[in-house]
Design a protein that fits this description.
It is built from ten helices and 15 strands. The protein has about 425 residues and is α+β, with helices and mostly antiparallel strands. Helix 8 crosses helix 9. The longest helix has 24 residues.
Length: about 425
Amino acid sequence: MSRAAQKKRKRQHKFNSTKTQVNKLHLPMCPSASPNESECDELPSKLGSTEFVSQNQLSHGSKFVGSSKKGSWKMFDRTEVQHPLSLAVHTTPISKILQLKDTYECLVTEKSALLLSKIIFPHDRLLFYEQFWEKTPAVFTRATVDASYFGKFFTKKAFKAMVTEHVLKLGIDVDIIDGEGNRLVSVTDSDDVHALPVTMDGGEIWSNYTKQHAIALLQPQVYNDNIWNLCSSLEYEFGCRVDPIITLQPSQHKWTHPPIKTHQFALQLEGNTKWTLKKDQTYQPYISNENLLISDSEQSFNLRAGDSLYIPFGWKATVETSDMGQSLILSLQTSNSNSVSTLFKIAVTQAVENLQLESRLFRKLLPPDIRDYLGVPTSENEDDPKRQILMSDLTKLCSQVMTQAIDIIDPAHDQVS
């Protein structure tokens, strides 16, 4: 046996041994059942009540989420949380979860899973990915009004301190939104790339707030350690960057967001809000299960302090506050640049640039009479011989582009944030 064959055999043996050890660790969790059976699972039957959540619901077995449909793309497998705090995640403050020491008290993946479980309680974390993630909005309410559910993780007092202690740049650090949902225009919105952003001190910002304008902090993690720790921990759960936005809305304020191009979690820290969501028909929903019926109709949710809301990609959101008081919301935006389209944009663009240098066919000029048989006005002339020849050549070149893109897919992924 050659040396290379011996090394390959050792690697395969090591992989099989590790796989067996992992299975042995998980199997005893449900001793009376096989790993595929579900007698030990007691899952919630509805949202909005903690009484439907069993204690072992968030911490059991070797169950995973992944598409088993033949021919489907199995994006990832997610394992269940196996940590003592998972039994009482709903009563554990976010700050206490963040204080867990990595490796010694908790793995970073366990910490991130605990944080998500806290946000979407009483719903099961794995069921959330199976039923809602990338599919449809979902609201997570507590059994009773619990203004202390998120604790003193971030308060209006901390918000005011952040605004008054720092000079913020309009359009970069802070946005001012009037009662009609319009942003206060800054120099950064102009076409002049050399224009300096407008800076605002605390007095200027609060004067706008007294005029019934909402204040949105666009990168609060720069000025607050709690927000920074939360976002950095959740990155292990989603495998990408998590961007926070904290919005303080006065009473009787209405704000319509543009179509959300991220997956967003809205945490109602203080006050009450009414959210009206409507699917933007420009974007088709991601459906991994043909039997799952997803409504594109308008949906409304009322959030109280301690509640949270998940909004998938491509939904328009209108947020209204009542006349009962102001509202403080923490929005966590994830998967902003972690999609398949982002990966292909990088890979295909670089592939075309490489082929332009390597092949003269990609440097060849287009025929001078190409407008006679290519373009929207002439797209119906499919029987034109010149058009048929050109389309055949372009198809072959596209094949080269995709081959090159797949060859460089690894370095292209390294550029995905």
